[in-house]
Amino acid sequence: MCGIVGYIGHRPAADVLLRGLQRLEYRGYDSAGIAVMNGTLAVHKKKGKVQDLAHLLENVQVDGSLGIGHTRWATHGFPSDVNAHPHANPSGDFALVHNGIIENYAALREKLVAEGRTFQSQTDTEVLVHLIDRLWDGGAISLEEAVRQALQLVVGTYGIAVVSAHDPDLLIAARKGSPLILGVGEGEYFIGSDAAPLVEYTRQVVFLNDGEMVVVRRSGYEVRTIDNVVLNKEVHELEWDLEQIEKGGYEHFMLKEIMEQPVSLENCMRGRVQPAENTLKLGGLIHEMDRLRAARRIVIAACGTSWHAGLVGEYLIESLARIPVEVEYASEFRYRNPILGEGDVVLVISQSGETADTLAAVREAKQRKVPVYGICNVVGSTIARETDAGVYLHAGPEIGVASTKAFTAQVTVLAMLALKLAEGRTISQAEMAHYLQALAAIPDKVRAVLETCDQPIRQIAQVYRYASNFLYLGRGYNFPVALEGALKLKEISYIHAEGYPAAEMKHGPIALIDQFMPVVFIAMKDSTYDKVVSNIEEVVARKGSVIAITDTDNGELDKLCEYVIRIPATEEFLSPLLTVVPLQLLSYHIAVMRGCNVDQPRNLAKSVTVE
């Protein structure tokens, strides 16, 4: 959560910081602030969006080429000007921005108050500021040494950046459990929670690991551990470019990313799915396939939309490769003392590669000496670095808080993995050739869905935009899609929605059905179709309003349903890649018609880096 940006160089720092915060706002938008050094330390912060901070600064001269900025997702302390970052020490000697949670802040605060210190905010961050100030003691030791010592005293997670009123040539940053990267330019350096605020200026970056601190000066930088061991860090090149993180003429990032899915899926499969040669390559797992094929059990751990993708993966791997799979909420995985043993492997899924709970699952599995593989989108992310091997999505940056193209890319990777595990074991070469052709055809079929369904779905959204509740029902491979459709609607339109296996409707949810309850059925003509139709009949008998997603040539549901959305047919195991797209569009259009901020839904942030 929260977005951090820092700059030292030759440009006006305030301009760089504001632009960076605007690009990071999907990480938090309760409040924002900057601290710029120019002889003195000028701190400006404001409750609300980054645009509110920009308005505040319109009539303020903020000079200087060194500074830090922050956009907040509140944890300790409600959104307010006082609780906004940066936080400065009482004498204004230095300022700090922080992402994460200081778990022992209450005990530290109590001790600091007993020493006579006064706190202005309700944040845990201000405790860290006072702790550094006490150790620094007006210059008794260097600021970087005070920061280093303070971080050894705190328990919890942090990504921090610090600037000093006494040193116009110093920018300090450190991380533990909260991502930070250093951007390396020509005579200038950048700090960012992710690549978004950096790519406009440089693509050369250094990824900080947990327990590492970087001290940046205009002449260069040095990375060391919190234990003061100097490190030699590799410089990496970002894959993203500026165009990818712009809206490109779309009203919202979410709509842009929905519409990008044909291309993101092509990129995900490029060099991997080769129907002409009847080959499937997953380079990141090339040396791990024997271990995966021999697995006694595959445990998938993920959160939110990635967890839904993992559920689809369970169906895919068990059906195609006949390997047992269990899907766990990463947030619960390490707290229930999981049983992991010889022959087990753990597969984690995270768009950002920084999800705190999923990263904790990685470390729990590794502690138990179990192989851990990752599926993530962000190259160089913590999960990508800490897992034994894995597969990148190559879906491009996903800025919209509500995940769309990452989900379809995750399902695509899981489908490729299932096929690779099944190859030569449970499916023949002829079946493999057929399935690869079907997989390669998916991007064009997604294009067809987007082209033919968008306008009809707008009309459906117009009818149901004021509904208070929705049910989403599916069976088999499309039960997780029902969960994902309900989540999308909840996230961005604030309509209560639930997803269920269609047959489970009879075991409770059917009590909710009346003429005011829209029910979305995924009713593709697959092995469960007849059962789903029976479930539709049950809803219609109770005067429920049914929206159905089915095959292009299926006219059987027209008399039963209020609305029918038709999409191309594909192999049953690939259908989630198509059925989810109308549900993304439905949630998007309903949210827009309700006047909701689609890209910045209330209380949510893109990357959940705190527990």
Description:
There is one protein chain. This protein is an alpha/beta fold. The termini are close together. The strands form five sheets. The protein has an eight-stranded antiparallel β-sheet, with helices on one face. A seven-stranded antiparallel β-sheet has the order 5-6-7-8-12-13-14, covered by helices on one side. Helix 4 crosses helix 5 (143-151). The protein folds into three domains: 3-244, Aminohydrolase, N-terminal nucleophile (Ntn) domain (Glutamine Phosphoribosylpyrophosphate, subunit 1, domain 1), CATH 3.60.20; 248-440, Rossmann fold (3-Layer(aba) Sandwich); 446-597, Glucose-6-phosphate isomerase like protein, domain 1 (Rossmann fold, 3-Layer(aba) Sandwich). The chain contains 18 helices and 27 strands.
Summary of the model, kept short:
The chain is built from 18 helices and 27 strands. It is an alpha/beta fold and 611 residues long.
CATH architecture field of the largest domain: 4-Layer Sandwich
**Could you name the CATH topology of the largest domain?**
Glutamine Phosphoribosylpyrophosphate, subunit 1, domain 1
Mean pLDDT: 92
**Span between N and C termini?**
10 Å
Strand order of the largest sheet: 3-2-4-1-10-9-11-15
The CATH C-level class name of the largest domain: Alpha Beta
Enumerate how many helices there are, as a single number: 18
Judged by helices, strands and strand pairing, the structural class is alpha/beta
- Overall tally of domains: 3
What is the beta-strand fraction? 15-25%
* DSSP strand count: 27
Cα Rg: 25 Å
Overall morphology? globular
**Helicity range:** 25-40%
- Report the biggest beta sheet as strand number plus sense, adding barrel if it closes: 8 strands, antiparallel
Identify the CATH homologous superfamily of the largest domain: Aminohydrolase, N-terminal nucleophile (Ntn) domain
Low-pLDDT ranges: none
